[in-house]
Design a protein that fits this description.
Length: 576
């Protein structure tokens, strides 16, 4: 026994599953660690993401391959009830299609469906055409959230491709000029001649997918209501009024998957010359009425397109001799302009798991993160984002997105425990203790100040506040819904960004006070307190804070609706 509450175990268990086809191999090692494929086709390695996730506190990682891969923990993997028994999140990263290797068995779909319906999280991605459809296209919700094998799925070449590779920067162009690399061929594989309007900005090498400049993405913002165009570059002002936001409101402008640890939004992802697409929900209208989206309590969550990219008007060509890829002198027109990059579905309010999808697996592979191993010495693209300080900063954001794809999808059973750990650490730290003592005489007035300080500590400790907010939603049994449900019809009230910030801030402050008082009362037996008791203390603190937040409702926010007041008062009742 000892003074102070114990540190609670909070581990999300991740399973990553890869497959492959004869034209693309997906492996867990580096690109050079496997046997190359015939005819020059690529072998893509996932080693950087694997190493980064393995070093991340709060998660465990199991690597499984549908075929053979010496770097996998499990080879010849199949989805079964037993193989998913000790898993919280499954990442499906596939190149397989309907013919090769063919769809997964109906028994595997059933096992994954059961896993999802019991709260398991799924992330799925592929690439252009039908890449990735073998594992993902038959799964509920997942099948609708990305174009897996649809008539309008983007293709590898021609006008139906989606390209986001960035033109060479001045520094890259200078480095490449010094290497005397090959010039663009006079005609592409379809005998289209080199266009007369081809310039350094419109004739972009494939290898620039390995440069240190990401393709910009635009996160969807969730504020007081939907804007005419809700996709804006992240900033700290209301895009409509240009007025400064509430001190914490900017934390919630983007979806939690795109929230960085510092509260900003993800700005870019690796570009690629032929991606897939995440459609706007209902385009094509595949999910309406098919039973994939359960409802409960008057709420039926549906998918949301949370980030867009820009398909560029340019020509693409391989600067290095590569028989698997050929120059393409066709402007992509089918998806010209904005296209969907990241989609999300939050099923927690209705008792099923969360889902996320991405337009391309090239946001994860080594070739797009740490460089193309075929580049000659002196070509910065051989080092990827590690080639420059700006590239390293961009890579840090991309890795943050990768971690979010684990924690947001799978922390339902850990987020409350993680929040207890963070608040206990805060109140036992010098600054936290000082803040608690300063507010001891006027406890209720200290909730806001304590909450603001605690929120800063949380976001600085590696947990985006938008994800920490999940603890409040769980404590209130999802009677209230977060800002990213805005526009979803239903009986439950949806918080605006400012309302979420106001409620969560007061709840945090009161929870710190409650935990502090309980720790003092426990004395030298504090370390014997179990997790269930600590979560109950957290719930009690949140209930107190929500009550105070209602009495201290800012006059410049929309009035508290009867629906919201009823939901909060119900949530403030003692936990069963």
């Amino acid at each position: 026994m000892g003074f102070g509450f114990p540190h609670l175990p909070t581990v999300v268990r991740l399973l990553i599953v890869l497959d492959e086809r004869s034209t693309v191999a997906c492996r867990f090692g580096t690109e050079s660690s496997g046997v190359g494929l015939p005819d020059g086709y690529p072998l893509f390695g996932l080693s950087h993401v694997v190493q980064m996730l393995a070093a991340t506190r709060g998660m465990t990682l199991t690597k499984a391959h549908r075929g053979t891969d010496a770097d996998a923990d499990i080879q010849n993997f199949t989805f079964t009830t037993s193989s998913l028994a000790d898993v919280d999140v499954v990442w499906i990263i596939g190149s397989g299609g309907p013919k090769e290797p063919g769809p997964i068995a109906s028994t595997e779909i059933a096992a994954l469906t059961t896993f999802m319906n019991k709260g398991g999280g799924i992330f799925a991605t592929g690439d252009h055409d039908d890449y990735g459809s073998a594992m993902a296209a038959g799964l509920p919700r997942v099948q609708d959230m990305r174009l897996w094998n649809h008539a309008v799925t983007p293709q590898a070449t021609g006008k139906h491709r989606v390209t986001s590779i960035q033109p060479s920067s001045q520094a890259l162009a200078k480095a490449l000029a010094a290497l005397n690399l090959a010039a663009p061929p006079p005609a592409d594989a379809n005998a289209n001649p080199l266009p007369a309007d081809a310039t350094s900005s419109t004739l972009v090498p494939f290898e620039n997918q390995s440069a240190d400049a990401p393709a910009p993405i635009y996160a969807k913002l969730y504020q007081e209501g939907p804007f005419p165009n809700p996709f804006w570059p992240p900033n700290l002002r209301n895009p409509a009024s240009r007025q400064p936001l509430h001190p914490l409101a900017y934390v919630y402008v983007a979806h939690p998957l795109l929230q960085m640890d510092d509260g900003s939004a993800l700005k870019g992802l690796p570009g690629h010359m032929h991606e897939g697409v995440v459609p706007q929900p209902g385009e094509p209208a595949t999910f309406a009425g098919n039973g994939n989206y359960p409802s409960a309590g008057g709420t039926q969550p549906t998918p949301d397109l949370i980030a867009k990219g820009q398909c560029l008007s340019q020509y693409d060509w391989p600067q290095y001799d590569d028989s698997a890829f050929v120059a393409d002198y066709t402007i992509p027109t089918a998806y010209q302009g904005p296209y969907g990059v990241v989609g999300a579905y939050d099923g927690w309010p209705v008792g099923v798991g969360r889902v996320a999808v991405d337009s391309t697996f090239h946001h994860f592979f080594d070739i797009n993160l740490i460089g193309d191993q075929d580049c000659v010495s002196g070509d910065p693209r051989g080092q990827g984002y590690t080639a420059s300080s700006s590239g390293k900063a961009a890579l840090a954001q991309i890795e943050n997105y990768h971690r979010n794809l684990v924690f947001w999808l799978g922390h339902a059973h850990t987020i409350s425990l993680r929040l207890v750990n963070m608040l206990v650490s805060f109140m036992n730290a010098p600054d936290g203790g000082k803040a608690l003592k300063a507010g001891a005489a006027e406890t209720e007035k200290s909730y806001l100040g304590l909450g603001l300080t605690a929120a800063g500590e949380i976001s600085g400790g590696g947990t985006p506040l938008a994800q920490a907010l999940d603890a409040l939603l769980i404590m209130t049994a999802h009677r209230i819904l977060p800002p990213w449900f805005w526009g979803n019809p239903g009986e439950r009230p949806v918080l605006s960004a400012r309302e979420a910030a106001h409620l969560f801030t007061h709840a945090l402050g009161a929870a710190v006070v409650e935990l502090y008082a309980a720790q003092k009362a426990a004395g030298n037996k504090g370390s014997d307190v179990d997790a269930a008791t600590l979560v109950a203390i957290l719930h009690r603190g949140f209930a107190t804070g929500l009550g105070h937040a209602l009495t201290a409702w800012p006059a410049d926010m929309r009035p508290v609706s009867a629906k919201l007041r009823s939901a909060l008062e119900s949530a403030m009742q003692p936990a069963a």
